[in-house]
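Subject: sequence -> C-alpha cells, single chain

Hey, anyone have a minute? Need the predicted structure for the following. Not urgent.
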Amino acid sequence: MKNIDRRNFLKLSGGALIGVTLGSVALRAQAEPLDPTDATALALKYAHVSPVEGAYCDGCAFIQGEDGKEWRPCAIFPGKEVAAKGWCSAYAPK
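Reply:
Had a minute. Here:
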C-alpha cells in the first residue's frame, strides 16, 4: 500500500468533497415536476392542488428543500418535485 503524505491526502479529500457537492447540486437540478399520471402519484392520489382544505405539501413532514418555493422535492417521490399547494394520501403534518 502506498503511503499518502499529508499534502496528497488533503488534495484527495478536497477533490472528493467538491465532487460530492457538485454531484448533489447536479442531481437536484435534474428534478422535474411530478406528473399526476405517474404510477406512484396515481396510487397516492397526488394532486397539484390539494382537495383537502388545510392539508398542503408545504406543510407535510416529507417535503424537502427551501420553504416558500412553489415546487419542492419530496421524499415520497424521489427525483421529482411536488407543488407546494399539492397533496397526496401520504400527507403527514409537520
